[in-house]
Amino acid sequence: MLSRSSCLSRHPRSCPGAHTIIPSVTIPFPTAADATLVQRVVSVDPILRPSELVRKMSVEAALLHIVFTAQSVRQARVALDHCLSDIKVVVQTMREFGPESAVDRKADASIEVGLNGSWEGVQR
């Protein structure tokens, strides 16, 4: 007989006596390529307790779908918070270093230099 933990990792919806929490999130992106990139980057981060939490990510058109299956509300909340934080960092990185960001960075160069305490770069 399977233990509750191993049962959850294999068949989360059919575990006897298991309370499963299944939150899901759908996040729209400008393009399917952006959604796929975010999925690939975030999916590298492994789930720390795969016997207690399952994360499934998929991309449909420009939508990133994420479904968690957890044994408790706390696990679901922590996993969702962690995943959304990871996605936020990836999106900020894409905005900063993506193909269109070169124009944006030049426009904001004076602000960056000012924050660093030197205006020499702006005068050149």
Automatic annotation (TrEMBL):
InterPro entries (UniProt xref): CTAG/Pcc1
Main localisation: cytoplasm
Subcellular location: Cytoplasm; Nucleus
Any GO CC annotation of this UniProt entry: cytoplasm
Nucleus recorded as keyword: yes
GO BP annotations listed: tRNA processing; tRNA threonylcarbamoyladenosine metabolic process
Highest rank taxon of the organism: Eukaryota
Membership in a protein family: Belongs to the CTAG/PCC1 family.
Name this polypeptide is given: BQ2448_189 protein
